[in-house]
Amino acid sequence: MEIVIAKDNRELGREAGRKGADFLKETIRKNGQANIILATGTSQFETLRTVIEDEDIDWSKVVMFHLDEYIGISIEHKASFRKYLKERVLAELPSLQAYYLIDGEGDPAEECERLNKIIRSHPIDVAFVGIGENAHLAFNDPPADFEATDPYIIVELDKACRMQQMGEGWFEKLEDVPKKAISMSVNHIMDSKHIICSVPDQRKAEAVVNTLTSEITPEIPATILQNHSSCYMYLDEDSASLYKEVMAEEDGK
Predict the structure, then answer these.
(1) Do 46 and 13 touch, CB atoms closer than 8 A?
(2) pTM of the predicted model as reported, rounded to 2 decimal places
(3) How far apart are CA 232 and CA 74, in angstroms?
(4) 162-196 tens-digit pLDDT
């Protein structure tokens, strides 16, 4: 894993976006097309903006998959990740070759089956992800399932995850946050050729230091990223603060 510490969220997003865009353009040059995963949430604003604004990407050769979605909320709900992607990505990229969004309003098992059939023939070249305040990866909350082999699975959301979603302003109260979601599995994220992980803000500092300094464990799901051969984690000074303290202590020994 390569760790990049930027001075602030904006610089983090620019650097992460440029790296991801470079991988995307390289893949299109080599293979004639590329498959990507897009995460949502506030951590991805700057990164996705940078990628979208790269005029050298031929989006007609890109297939996009969606990382996760709540079960049981309408696409009109402000917390809907489909709504996020439609407004922030799809509206800006009308030439995309294809895109596949997760519909959490119907039968979740049938939706997983539908998506799994599609994505199995589209190996992921670049995955844009983040980690949660509880170090979740996608919606794989601790203890995450490190054994699941299906690309999309149904997961339970823990209280820490649901508190984060409320704290970010997507829901008015905890009771409004769904308790289940459809999420890309840990193993399928790890099957991506390249991973761009954007993690800004002080509230993620503990998750960052645990992810980077702990042994790999389902109790800290993002630790699995340590095993990926082409994972780039982009931090800002706030999210990297505790990690830098630990590294300074290690250097002083």
Answers:
(1) yes
(2) 0.95
(3) 33
(4) 998 888 888 989 999 999 999 999 999 999 999 99
Q: Spell out the residues 6+ positions from residue 30 whose beta carbon is closer than 8 angstroms to its own.
A: none
Q: What distance in Å separates the CA atoms of residue 178 and residue 200, rounded to the nearest whole number?
A: 24
What are the domain boundaries of the chain?
2-252
| Phi/psi at 64 (5° precision) | -110, 135
User: What is the C-alpha radius of gyration for the chain, rounded to an integer number of angstroms?
Assistant: 17
- CA 132 – CA 41 distance, rounded (Å): 10
Q: How far apart are CA 90 and CA 83, in angstroms?
A: 10
| Encoded tokens for 175 | 């009771």
Angle in degrees, 0-180, between the axes of helices 9-31 and 45-52, rounded to the nearest 10: 40
Mind listing the pLDDT tens digit for each residue in 83-110? 999 999 999 999 999 999 999 999 999 9
Closest CA to 170 of 158, 181, 162: 162
**Calpha distance 160→110 (Å, rounded):** 28
- The CA-based angle 73-78-81, given to 5 degrees, is 65
User: Which alpha helices (DSSP H) does 32-143 contain, by range?
Assistant: 45-52, 81-85, 108-119
Bridging pattern class, strands 152-156 and 180-184: antiparallel
Q: Per the structure block, which two tokens stand in for 182?
A: 């459809």
**Does the domain made of 2-252 have the CATH classification 2.30.110.70?**
no
Residue 71 identity? I
